[in-house]
Structure formats: structure tokens, C-alpha cells
Design a protein that fits this description.
Layout (H helix, E strand, L loop, with lengths): L2 H5 L15 H8 L6 E5 L4 H7 L5 E6 L2 H16 L2 H8 L7 H9 L4 H8 L2 H6 L6 H17 L2 H9 L3 H12 L2 H10 L2 H8 L13 H13 L7 H8 L12 H8 L5 E5 L2 H6 L6 E5 L9 H14 E11 L14 E3 L1 H8 L9 E7 L1
Parallel strand pairs: 1-2, 1-4, 2-3, 4-5
Antiparallel strand pairs: 5-7, 6-7
């Protein structure tokens, strides 16, 4: 993130207690090979940890917000100290009455800064650390106060049961897509409400046009074209936990592969720009860049993309999302960066974190 974007954003709290980007498509896009050097926007840590499962030589997590790095650090401690089910309890994916105890077991593995950060947040630990972010609390408000005005719990459960596509479409258009759903969705996920309750107002600086209409269409896609029974992000939004499926980093089959490679992970409290200034040219093989580019001007995006390419190795890949602002390789960089358009479009059709409008995959030439 550029320095001027940093000045417009409040970093006094956890913005995201989970990664709301689909690691399944991220890992397919990056195609990480053993021994490669990767850079990842830390966020809450889930997708950074998912990258370890592919046996890279190094994953360097970068985030300007120390609260996000505290989320990553506690996850690392949980992978080291807890078993898989215990980690799910600490996250909030499973019900638990012993999260304080689980945290105390992890605490000794945290830095002094990490201990101080989490010691001051017993309520967040008791609720599950996956619920501790401003974005997650926004979904809690929707789930607790808005959704009950639209649909019964029984109808929500039927939606999440999924089924064949024809069944999903019949259910959506016949029972779910009511006037209350459209009206209250458009209000709660409007730019006005999101900027005051869900996301930082600075995140909308470069957004043109309506927000709620685009998100409503993406929600329709997630409830019909994708199967809700396979969607952990949708399940958390509507129930506050993971019901029958988990994000990549939390799945049991990936737990040991991640834990075995935690010594290959490091993290830096820095802007991406400042971090890249310390990198030698041609060092980085893979980049997970989240959606950082849409929080900056077009000129700043182009300048940062130049730095990304300069620090990247030939044949390296970068992946990032567009949610409300279009960002993709400019024509003047065509000799250095090649869009993998068909791959990106195919993966975006599979994207379970459905609110993004585009998934971008580019290769360094």
C-alpha cells in the first residue's frame, strides 16, 4: 500500500480477523513450486499460511497494520501448540467453552507485543479470534439484526444445504429473492453503511458508481451458480461459524503440511512499497497481493506495480483481486507483464469469496 493511502486508513484495530479471499483459487493461480520465494499481504494470516502447504522456500508476509500481524502471529502459535480441533475452537469455527485456556497455551509462543495485544482482548478470544475484526462484526450485525427480518433460520439452513444447480436456482428465485432481501441487502451493503460500520471510509476513495447493486449480483451468483454447501465464507456470514466446510488453511488435510513449514515464514510491519525498496531485483517468485491496489490512485498503482515487477523473477506470478475498483496491468507494461486472462477468468468463476468483481493473474516476462 502506498504511503498516502496509509495516511487515510485507521490501523488502530483488527480490520479483518479472517482472510476473505479464496485460497483455493489463489494457490491454483500462483502454482507455487518447492523452494520459491513468496510475498503475501498478511491480512489475518490464513492465505499466507495456506501458501506454506506448497513447500515454498520462504513466505514473507507484509502488512502495515500491526493488528493484522498479531492475528498472523497467534495463528502461527496455534499451529505449533494446538491440535487441529483445538485450533478450530480458538478460531470460532467450532463451539468452545475453553478458548481462554487454549489462548494461554499459545501465549508463551507469542512475542511481548503479541502477548500485550491479545491479553487486552479477552472478549475477542472468548468469542473466537475469527470474529475479532471490524469486517466480521459487520457481518454479525447483518446476521443478528437484518437477516432475521428477511428469512427464518429454517430457510437459511435450507439455503446452506445447497443441492444441484436447478434446485439452487428454484430455491433462490422462488423463496429467497424477495423484496425484503433486495431492499435490506441494498441498504446494509450500501457505500454509506459499509463505510461507517464495515470498512474504512478510505477504502471507497476510488470507487465509482453504486456498490450495493454490484454486491447483490455477486450474492445471487454465489447462491445459484456456486453451491452454498461448499462455501465456508457464505456459511460464516449467515451462521457465524463454519458449518460443513472450511477454508483451505483450516482443513484437516492441510494442517500438518502448514505446521511442518512454519519456520519458512517471516513477517514484516511495513508498507508493500517500503518492503520492495529493500528487495534486490529479480528475487521474488510469487506474490499474493490481496486487493491492495484498489485503495490507491491509478498512478500509484502503476508505480507500485513497477516495483513489484522489478523485484520479481522472470516467470514469476502475481495474483490480486478487484472488488469495486478496476485494476489490471496497463498497456505500457506489456513488455514486462503478461496477463493470464483465461486462467484468471476460469478461477474467478470458482471464487467462493463471491464479493469480488475480478481476479487478476499476471506473469513477469
Amino acid at each position: 500500500m502506498r504511503r498516502n493511502a496509509v495516511k487515510r486508513t485507521d490501523f488502530g484495530c483488527i480490520r479483518y480477523a479472517q482472510c476473505w479471499e479464496d485460497a483455493d483459487i489463489l494457490l491454483q493461480a500462483l502454482d507455487i513450486r518447492p523452494g520459491q520465494i513468496c510475498v503475501s499481504i498478511a491480512s489475518a494470516g490464513d492465505n499466507t499460511l495456506a501458501m506454506l502447504s506448497r513447500s515454498p522456500g520462504r513466505v514473507i508476509a507484509v502488512d502495515v497494520n500491526p493488528a493484522q500481524l498479531a492475528c498472523l502471529e497467534l495463528r502461527v502459535a496455534a499451529y505449533r501448540e494446538l491440535n487441529h480441533c483445538e485450533m478450530l475452537e480458538l478460531m470460532g469455527s467450532l463451539p468452545s467453552r475453553r478458548r481462554d485456556e487454549l489462548y494461554r497455551r499459545c501465549r508463551a509462543l507469542l512475542s511481548a507485543e503479541g502477548q500485550s495485544f491479545w491479553d487486552a482482548r479477552p472478549t475477542e478470544i472468548g468469542q473466537g479470534i475469527g470474529e475479532a475484526g471490524r469486517f466480521e462484526q459487520y457481518f454479525t450485525l447483518f446476521r443478528s439484526w437484518v437477516l432475521p427480518l428477511i428469512h427464518s433460520r429454517e430457510r437459511v439452513e435450507r439455503l446452506l444445504h445447497g443441492g444441484a444447480q436447478k434446485q439452487r436456482e428454484d430455491f433462490y428465485y422462488g423463496e429467497w429473492d424477495t423484496w425484503r432481501w433486495k431492499l435490506l441487502f441494498r441498504f446494509f451493503f450500501s457505500r454509506f453503511v459499509m463505510a461507517r460500520v464495515g470498512r474504512d471510509p478510505g477504502h471507497f476513495r476510488y470507487v465509482d458508481g453504486g456498490v450495493a447493486r454490484r454486491l447483490l449480483e455477486r450474492a445471487r451468483y454465489a447462491l445459484t451458480d456456486l453451491n452454498p454447501a461448499d462455501n465456508p465464507y457464505l456459511q460464516w456470514i449467515l451462521t457465524g461459524r463454519h458449518t460443513v466446510t472450511l477454508p483451505y488453511a483450516l482443513r484437516p488435510e492441510n494442517f500438518e503440511a502448514i505446521r511442518a513449514r512454519l519456520d519458512r515464514l517471516e513477517w514484516r510491519c511495513s508498507t508493500l512499497e517500503d518492503f520492495l525498496e529493500t528487495c534486490e531485483e529479480g528475487r521474488i517468485d510469487r506474490y499474493n497481493l490481496s486487493d491492495v491496489f484498489e485503495y490507491m490512485s491509478l498512478d500509484d498503482y502503476h508505480g507500485l506495480l513497477e516495483r513489484v515487477v522489478r523485484a520479481g523473477r522472470r516467470g514469476g506470478r502475481l495474483a490480486y483481486w478487484n472488488m469495486l475498483v478496476e485494476r489490471r496491468r496497463p498497456d505500457h507494461m506489456a513488455d514486462r507483464l503478461r496477463p493470464l486472462t483465461e486462467l484468471a477468468r476460469r478461477l474467478q468463476r470458482e471464487d467462493k469469496a463471491f464479493f469480488y468483481s475480478a481476479f487478476i493473474v499476471e506473469e513477469i516476462i
